[in-house]
Design brief:
Layout (H helix, E strand, L loop, with lengths): L2 H11 L1 H20 L8 H19 L1 H26 L9 H5 L3 H5 L5 H12 L2 E5 L2 E4 L4 H6 L17 E2 L2 E2 L7 H13 L3 H28 L3 E2 H18 L5 H4 L4 H16 L4 H9 L3 H21 L7 H9 L10 H14 L2 H16 L1 H11 L13 H4 L3 H13 L9 E2 L5 E3 L2 E3 L4 E3 L2 H5 L42 H18 E5 L7 H4 L2 E3 L1 E3 L4 E6 L2
Parallel strand pairs: 2-9
Antiparallel strand pairs: 1-2, 3-4, 5-13, 6-9, 7-8, 10-13, 11-12
Protein name: Cytochrome P450
Keywords: Heme, Iron, Membrane, Metal-binding, Monooxygenase, Oxidoreductase, Transmembrane, Transmembrane helix
Pfam families: p450
């Protein structure tokens, strides 16, 4: 019994013993704790324990012994982590950049210029079709991996696979980030009520109103001979549309010609997430600390919008997406919306999902049509006969959905410029998965990035070119139809894809029917790509376009 007090006493004076004790503790911390499981969301607890330990050591042993113990602990801990990741990790045989094998900090390095989707393409060109991009993460460029990872019967899960763990409102996850499949299934049922044909028909009236507001702005710019930034106005159009069909609210940003505070916050928040390159623990730390800033302000604005919409619903009959959430929330036996935090969480998802993703496709559709005047005129010839067919003086989604070239232009734009260029990851089941004959171990984060997949020579002939005919008269230009997944795949595919297609059809058809457009003088179209930012959702760079009203 005297040996323990003697050992403790020795630690006060014996520097070598202090170094040995610290190193041993560091090695054991890695092998017994850090190497097992997922700890990003525990970052605050980990930091507090380490801080408390250093403080206690300082009080008990003094500053110098505590510093020696702590330094040797950290050196041993990170040495053990590095050696394990390089030589003993289950992914040690997969190719990839050396820094990526050692640390997830390589993700922020790749995303430093906001061009993560471009950097991914470079990695696949250099290392092959399965790449180790982080210590426990793989990128896979193979269409066969899509059902393996995302299908309903897949054993892969969202939990611990990336940002999903930290995307929540006071602990309530939105539809896209729900970790439990049963909970997701129930929530999606409520969302789907708001996306049924009858609901879409109701929203279509609002969509046409937004289109006419957009055309009114084009009338002004056209009459004055001024160029318009179509990337900006694509965002304003979809944001105003989201306000109408999501919350029966008028944002009026199209008339203002600029972003409002909520759009500014969306851009800032997603920009910060994009710069982290899937590094999760900083987000988890901020949430644990209850940090406010832009994220806090966005949460408050979202809550205010949801509360106002609920209050209005007590005296008005409003047909919008949030109304379906309220109907479930206020029912005697809710299917999914059991408390207000879930309402607020999915309110934020409406703001994001019905704005940014559609805006990206619209931005690049204007770019491609301005660059390729022939398709613009062919599209005009296709939509002209259906104008007023069902409703006098208007287009309808049902009429436009039958137009082959319009669908092809939208599909080809989504192929080249996929809004969610990186896609969400999944964690492999304990038994692992097999992709293209390659076994991937269990407990590994895997993802199939959309941008490289949609531009792969294995899937598409002339993959970097805008060729709508590949979706109509030249199907041979598509080598692998399964490689095209703009709305993702499986039970977590985009619940709003029919809504998105309706918006794109109507906005493009009204625009092409009313105007001819071209790149403005001095505009070469390069900035829409060079200044694009992959902020989880792609954000197009600026594009100056001149619109001339058709006679």
């Amino acid at each position: 019994m005297e040996s323990v007090p003697h050992l403790i006493a020795s630690l006060h004076h014996d520097a070598s013993l202090q170094l040995l004790a610290g190193a041993t503790t560091g090695f054991l911390s890695h092998t017994l704790y850090f190497v097992r499981g997922y700890h990003d969301t525990s970052i605050l607890s980990i930091l507090l324990i380490h801080f408390a330990s250093y403080t206690s050591l300082t009080i008990f042993f003094g500053l110098i012994p505590a510093t020696l113990l702590s330094t040797s602990y950290l050196v041993a801990l990170f040495t053990s982590i590095s050696l394990y990741r390089l030589f003993f990790h289950p992914l040690r045989h997969f190719p990839g950049p050396l820094p990526a094998k050692l640390t997830k900090l390589y993700g922020p390095y790749l995303a430093r210029n906001g061009q993560l989707h471009i950097e991914q393409n470079k990695l696949f060109s250099k290392y092959g079709n399965i790449i180790r991009v982080a210590p426990n993460e793989l990128f896979v460029l193979n269409s066969g991996a899509i059902p393996t990872i995302h299908a309903a019967k897949s054993g892969c899960r969202k939990r611990d696979a990336g940002v999903y763990n930290v995307v929540h409102y006071n602990g309530a996850y939105n539809l896209d980030s729900i970790l439990d499949r049963e909970e997701h299934r129930g929530r999606r049922r409520v969302w789907e009520r708001g996306m049924m044909t009858q609901a879409l028909t109701t929203y279509e009236t609002s969509t046409r109103q937004i289109c006419h507001t957009w055309l009114s702005q084009l009338d002004v710019f056209s009459a004055e001979g001024r160029a318009i930034n179509t990337s900006l106005f694509s965002l304003l159009v979809t944001f105003d549309h989201m306000g109408k069909i999501g919350f029966s609210h008028d944002f009026n940003t199209i008339e203002a010609g600029k972003e409002n505070r909520m759009l500014d916050l969306l851009e800032v928040m997603f920009g910060q997430l994009g710069q982290l390159g899937e590094l999760v623990w900083p987000v988890a730390l901020m949430k644990s600390l209850g940090a406010g800033g832009d994220a806090g302000e966005f949460d408050r604005l979202t809550k205010t919008m949801a509360d106002r919409r609920e209050a209005r619903g007590e005296g008005e009959k409003l047909d919008d997406i949030f109304g379906h959430f309220l109907q479930d929330f206020q029912s005697e036996k809710p299917v999914a919306f059991f408390d207000r935090n879930i309402l607020y969480s999915d309110a934020a998802l409406i703001l994001i999902g019905a704005t940014d993703t559609i805006a990206v496709v619209l931005s690049y559709a204007f770019y491609h049509l301005a660059q390729h005047q022939t398709y613009q005129e062919k599209l005009f010839a296709e939509v002209k006969p259906v104008f007023g067919r069902t409703i006098p003086g208007e287009f309808t989604n049902s009429d436009l959905s039958r137009l082959a070239l319009l669908e092809a232009v939208i599909n080809e734009t989504m192929r080249l410029d996929n809004p969610v260029a990186n896609n969400g990851g999944r964690m492999t089941p304990p038994e692992g998965i097999t992709v293209d004959g390659v076994w991937i171990p269990g407990g590994v984060a895997v993802r199939v990035p959309g941008y490289p997949m949609h531009r792969s020579e294995r899937a598409f002939v002339r993959p970097e070119e805008f060729v709508p005919e590949r979706w109509t008269s030249e199907p041979g230009l598509i080598l692998d139809r399964g490689a095209f997944f703009p709305f993702l795949s499986g039970p977590s595919n985009c619940v709003g894809k029919r809504l998105a297609m309706m918006v794109l059809r109507l906005v493009l058809s009204y625009t092409v029917y009313g105007y001819q457009f071209r790149l403005a003088p001095g505009e070469d179209g390069s900035a829409i790509y060079s200044e694009a930012k992959d902020n989880l959702i792609l954000k197009a760079g600026p594009l100056k376009v001149v619109f001339d009203k058709r006679s």
